[in-house]
Specification:
The chain contains eleven helices and twelve strands. The protein has helices at about 20-25, 35-45, 55-70, 95-105, 120-125, 135-150, 205-215, 230-245, 260-270, 285-295, 300-305; strands at about 5-10, 30-35, 80-85, 105-115, 155-160, 170, 185, 190, 220-225, 250-255, 280, 295-300.
Length: about 325
């Protein structure tokens, strides 16, 4: 029986956790040889953490040469090496070259995308002794999706390691679980007092059904919605009582959508939640960007409907 030769190509931003993934899964990768351009760089006698870029091209050449040696059975005298390439793989063409070389030599190649958000990587970089130039991280973030799609098309298998778990889902109401239309105006201003603005909104059944399914799969659901005044606070609670079965202690309101991200961060602290476990489903882009800046998961309602959530009970 011919043994299958395997290679793993890691893709991700600087400080996304690629090396940590290997370290935390030593048993899984015990039969793999790790090749890292960063390791060559750091072992060089002229290495300077503040000027690491000076050895960048050299370290890449060393890593590519080693990948070539390990995969060449002539050089290894018939010994098979399973290989992990621990490199960003984003802002370069040599990754494509290495993948094609591995495939030509009979390797089954898996692309593992360590999908950690840009803001999280930037925050990690701030407290790191050997800092990566911030502009370099941002530049790679802009190219990451394109490179992921490019590499996905030439490997045998793709796996994505998501940073966020989505275990705690906070849900907006207006335009998310309640179908929102234009609001009534009097004198150019929305009339929250004399009009029942929220009471008669139709439920978005497809969203509510998916949320209830996620609840059965172990996800914790909470409401986080804006209530401009006591009238809308009463109306929204009445609406929830009628259309969405969620406990009153799991309903949270802010007086303005502008404060929603800040409130979300406060709730994460209140309930002692890790930020990587916190997700807000909303339809307002400014709110979602504010949530992202605080290193929590912003999820537009359209993404929510298309997202394939895991079953936490398994």
């Amino acid at each position: 029986m011919i043994e299958t030769k395997r290679a793993i190509i890691l893709l991700g931003l600087p400080l996304s956790g690629k090396s940590t993934l290997i370290a935390e899964n030593k048993d899984v990768f015990k039969n793999y040889t790790v090749v890292s351009a960063d390791s060559y760089k750091e072992e060089h006698e002229d290495y300077d953490p503040n000027n690491a870029h000076l050895l960048h091209e050299w370290s890449i050449e060393q890593a590519e040469t080693q990948m070539n040696r390990l995969s060449d059975t002539v050089i290894t005298k018939g010994k098979t090496h399973n290989i992990i390439m621990d490199g960003g793989g984003i802002n370069n063409s040599y990754t494509v070259r290495i993948i094609e070389m591995l495939k030509d030599r009979g390797y089954r190649v898996t692309l593992v995308h360590v999908n950690t958000p840009l803001q999280v990587c930037l925050e990690r970089n701030k407290v790191r002794a050997r800092k990566v130039p911030e502009e370099s991280i941002i530049d790679k973030a802009a190219k990451q999706i394109m490179q992921f799609n490019r590499l996905s098309n030439i490997v045998h298998k793709v796996e994505v390691v998501e940073y966020f778990t989505n275990k705690n889902i906070f849900v907006d109401m207006d335009g998310v679980i309640a179908a929102l239309t234009t609001l009534p105006k009097v004198g150019g201003k929305i009339d929250f007092v004399n009009s029942e603005v929220f009471t008669h909104l139709k439920p978005v059944t497809v969203v509510i059904e998916k949320l209830l399914e996620l609840k059965s799969k172990g996800y914790k659901l909470r409401i986080l919605s804006a209530t401009p005044n006591s009238f809308s606070f009463y109306e929204k609670n009445t609406w929830l009582d009628k259309y969405f079965d969620i406990r009153h202690e799991d309903r949270f309101f802010v007086n303005s959508g502008q404060h929603k991200a800040e409130m979300l961060a406060n709730l994460a602290t209140k309930f002692k939640l890790d930020k990587r476990d916190v997700t807000l489903v909303d339809d307002t882009h400014s709110t979602l960007y504010a949530v992202e800046a605080l290193c929590m998961k912003p999820m537009h309602i359209s993404e929510f409907l298309a997202f394939n959530f895991a079953d936490l009970n398994k």
